[in-house]
Design a protein that fits this description.
Length: about 450
């Protein structure tokens, strides 16, 4: 018997690479459910004695589950004879004495969850509704050597536990393989589905993007930078001019995060030179890379986050004769900027200036990570009605990783910088206008 999976190419990493956590997220009709169902049937057919659990948060009746999808899939793959459905007990008998069970995690507690300990695979479908409690219950239970946890979901809110775990929390990075799939990745979607999509396309844009493009549902009112602004900036192409200032921003790793980001922005163009990301680099290594970039690009200004270990980077660069400016995120917002509201501290001011820049034509690379970074932080107002951007440490507490890339870009707005070419012009003009009176 040869089973040949016929699945869209986006899902290939989930089939060919190994990881404890496997995830597929995206909008409607992207074949997420079919792909996972197929993979599960395939694994059972190839590995006699395999045990798996098909989970969801709430399963009032078996109809809520993927029971029927699995039956249909086995039949479609012409291995229906290997599986014996036992709907009365919510399970399917599988090859070699294996079993596939169907459960709602909501019904699980510390005792009955133990029945899953010997299981090889847990597949959580519609995982956007997974609660933190259920996830915490499941993770240590699936503990057999080589066991896997699969999740498929249509993103709902940025803070949904599965989304945080598999797309944001960097602790899980080495353990996970996650793919994003949308309708265009599924050549097998039918004509009816396409009709539905076109109907929605003609309607409300945010709703369409949520349902079909896998964007989060209505964005939070407390989000400082909205998704629309970010997408517009990603779609733009830079149009550089000679007078554009070149500025380097350096966000140095902190709060146990190990990513340092160096970003070069030239006027409205933050796209042509994508950010440099250094993982696990120490102060000396970061300083060396910053100095190398200064030598290479000859920027008009260099701003380095000097909080935490960043101070060491600033010191080292200065010691080596490079002129760099240290920026303290918690420091005072030191100037009034047109179009920028009152800000609580330097970081809020830089983010507000960056938001204004995005509105006025800034160009950024098209990347999901950057989109998450820019739209991640929430904001509020302090007692003086000044804008406050959510602290990195608070984001960490929510399980959201700190927006290092966006912070590096924000640092390029720490202080106004004038391009060298313009500065030379101004100097020349000042000299020619200088008429000393005797
Ligand atoms: N391997 C396949 N062979 C044939 N058709 C397929 C295959 N995979 C997916 N399809 C078609 O694509 C449709 C959408 O797939 P699926 O239901 O898995 O999408 P989904 O991403 O889970 O969407 P939703 O968000 O609506 O749950 C299916 O109804 C089916 O018609
Ligand atoms: Mg589905």
């Amino acid at each position: 018997m040869i089973l040949k999976p016929d699945t869209p190419a986006v899902f290939e990493p989930l089939w060919t690479q190994s990881a404890r956590y496997k995830g597929a997220h995206g909008g409607r009709g992207s074949a997420k459910s079919w792909d996972r169902g197929q993979h599960l049937v395939f694994r059972h057919a190839m590995e006699p004695g395999l045990n798996s659990a098909c989970l969801r948060e709430v399963q009032a009746t078996l109809k809520d589950s993927v029971f029927k999808l699995i039956e249909d899939t086995a039949r479609r793959l012409e291995v229906g004879g290997l599986f014996t459905p036992v709907p009365s007990d919510s399970h399917i008998k599988c090859p070699g004495g294996g079993v596939m069970i169907f459960r709602g995690m909501n019904d699980m507690n510390a005792d009955n969850i133990k029945s899953l300990e010997g299981f090889d695979i847990a597949w959580w479908e519609e995982a956007q509704t997974a609660t933190q409690r259920s996830l915490d219950l499941l993770r240590p239970t699936i503990r057999k050597p080589g066991s896997e946890l699969w999740f498929s979901w249509n993103p709902r809110l940025r803070g949904d536990p599965v989304d945080v775990m598999l797309r944001q929390d960097r602790r899980f990075e080495p353990e996970r393989i996650v793919v994003e799939a949308n309708w265009r990745d599924n050549p097998m979607r039918g004509a009816e589905l396409e009709k539905e999509r076109l109907l929605d396309l003609a309607g409300d844009e945010a709703r369409y993007r949520h349902i079909w493009e896998g964007d989060y549902e209505a964005e939070s009112d407390m989000q400082f930078i909205g998704g629309g602004l970010v997408r517009e900036a990603m779609a733009r192409e830079p149009n550089p001019t000679i007078g554009d200032e070149l500025v380097l921003g350096v966000d140095v790793a902190r709060f146990g995060d190990d990513r340092t980001v160096i970003w070069a922005r030239r006027g409205r163009d933050a796209k042509t030179m994508p950010p440099i990301i250094l993982k696990g680099a120490d102060t000396m290594q970061v300083a060396a890379r910053v100095m190398a970039e200064i030598d290479r690009l000859k920027p008009d200004g260099v701003f380095i986050d000097e909080g935490g270990v960043g101070g060491g980077v600033v010191d080292r660069c200065r010691q080596m004769g490079y002129s760099v400016i240290g920026v303290n995120f918690g420091g005072k917002a030191d100037r009034a900027i047109e179009g920028v509201p009152k800000c609580r501290n330097k970081r809020a001011q830089m983010w507000a200036t960056m938001r204004e820049w995005l509105r006025e034509g800034g160009c950024i690379p098209d990347s999901r990570d950057l989109e998450m970074d820019l739209t991640g932080p929430l904001y509020g107002f302090d007692v003086n009605n000044a804008i406050e951007i959510e602290k990195k440490s608070d984001m960490k507490k929510r399980g959201v990783s700190s927006p290092d890339e966006a912070d590096a870009l924000a640092l390029t707005f720490a202080y106004p910088v004038v391009a060298r070419s313009i500065r030379r012009q101004q100097e020349a003009q000042a000299q020619s206008e200088w008429h000393p009176v005797w």
